[in-house]
Write a structure and sequence with these properties.
Elements (H helix, E strand, L loop, with lengths): L1 E5 L2 E8 L3 E6 L12 H5 L3 E6 L18 H15 L4 E6 L1 H12 L4 E7 L13 H8 L14 H5 L32
Parallel strand pairs: 3-4, 3-5, 5-6
Antiparallel strand pairs: 1-2, 2-4
Length: 190
């Protein structure tokens, strides 16, 4: 178990695998333990570094702190990179972890080899939200039976599809299911 000090918090982090470093940042309220299926697969080709965000898992946030800023959590990622002895890493964030990853790209771009965000947004007033029907489907539970709550997700779990590979041919050293892109910083404003 490794802990690193960051702005009054003690950030829990751990790593598996060898190769180019990749940091996995989980979403709101979830610990790094939820990477349990994804991380071992990445570890076949990468040094996978995972951390628990403030207020989650084994990370120790300052007492009485209930609000954790995304910029503080982006700094936490950099502190973990420092503790791991990593100058630059691929950064992958899921949900709120994607917002943290984007903040890392904005404030600490020299530390990123690439940026991958999953199921996230840029977190500002100009973010494009799902339309009303999608929001109702995802969040309105009043008219729903408990037995069919997972129905919208069924297509994702009942059929395994081969991932579509990008337009260029991949080299044998690259994982067939993973392709990273160069970091580009774009404003999410109108």
């Amino acid at each position: 178990m490794a802990l690193v000090e960051s702005s009054g918090a003690r950030i829990f982090w751990h790593e598996i695998g060898q190769g180019d470093p990749i940091v996995l940042i989980m979403g709101l309220g979830c610990s790094s333990a939820l990477w349990f299926r994804f991380a071992p697969r990445l570890a076949r080709h990468f040094r996978v570094i995972m951390l628990d965000n403030r207020g989650v898992g084994q990370t120790e946030a300052p007492r009485g702190t209930t609000i954790h800023r995304v910029s503080d959590m982006a700094r936490d990622v950099v502190r973990v990179l420092d503790a791991a002895g990593v100058d630059k890493a691929h950064v992958l964030g899921f949900s709120m972890g994607g917002m943290i990853a984007q903040q890392c790209a904005i404030e600490h771009s020299a530390r990123l080899r690439s940026l991958t965000v999953l199921a996230t947004n840029c977190g500002n007033p100009y973010a494009i939200l799902p339309n009303w029907e999608v929001q109702r489907l995802l969040f309105d539970r009043r008219r729903e039976k408990p037995s069919n709550r997972s129905a919208p997700c069924a297509p994702m779990f009942t059929r395994v599809q081969r991932p579509r590979i990008a337009s260029r041919k991949m080299t044998p050293s690259e994982s067939p299911a993973i392709r990273f892109v160069q970091v580009t910083t774009h404003s999410c404003t109108a």
